[in-house]
Amino acid sequence: MSLEVLHAPGQGPARSVDILLVHGIFVGAWVWEPHFMPYLAEAGYNVHAVSLRGHGGSCGDEQLAALALTDYTADLQEAVAAIPRPIVAVGHSMGGAVVQHAIRSGVSLAGAALMASVPPGGLMATNVAMMWSQPLLWRELSSMFTSENHSVNLEVLRGGLFSDRVDVATLARFMARTGRESALIGFELQGLRPFAPFAWQAPPILVMAGTDDRFIRQQDVWATALWYGVEPQWLPGLSHTVMLDPDWRIAADSLLKWLDGLEAEATSNVKADAKSA
Q1: Of 85, 69, 47, 61, whose CA–CA distance to 2 is shortest?
Q2: Does residue 72 sit within a domain?
Q3: Residue 23 located in a structural domain
Q4: How many separate domains does the chain show?
């Protein structure tokens, strides 16, 4: 499988883990390039961003309609296997479901950050709630799954995915780079078939989301946090498309703070093991 994986080498003192960024629906690794990749690399991390098959510069576009969560999980596993260092995976939205399914499937990670992620129980309740409370957004997103040539309503998508925090011209540039998505994936993400690991199977988990996310509800975020037994990290004022939000640094700094804690705990455990040996 020919996958596009973007890289940004860490600057300064080496870190003990690499970061692998996993995108959400309709986009590719490019969504991480403007802000997250250089910012995390400046903090010393080797940063990798994978385009799942059928997305970005990866192959598989002609097979997109038939792709399933297991295919995207295989892509993540391939990307992990190609990196010869411990990895923390960061999954946004659909990417969060891919990361969870990878852990369930036995992919070894040093940690995982679930950012505005699909919750372990799936999106069925979220989908129904959106259909009633935000019917225009529900229609636009549904049409993007089912129609290749759908003419999107930029104002509706701006309000739903960016919470009106970007101008229409910026959103138009974003939409020009988006692609199609597997309708089968959209069905699987409803949660009719389990895709999440049990808490005891999971590595250290960070659950984070914007308080102004109009796609993933706060109760969905709490459901994810409770499943893994952690407190959610709330990003004040941020929208669903966290990595392109004007205040994206809030999210990046929250991630870096958690990673620092992860490294400190790992160092402490090594010292304790050495002392007891």
Answers
A1: 61
A2: yes
A3: yes
A4: 1
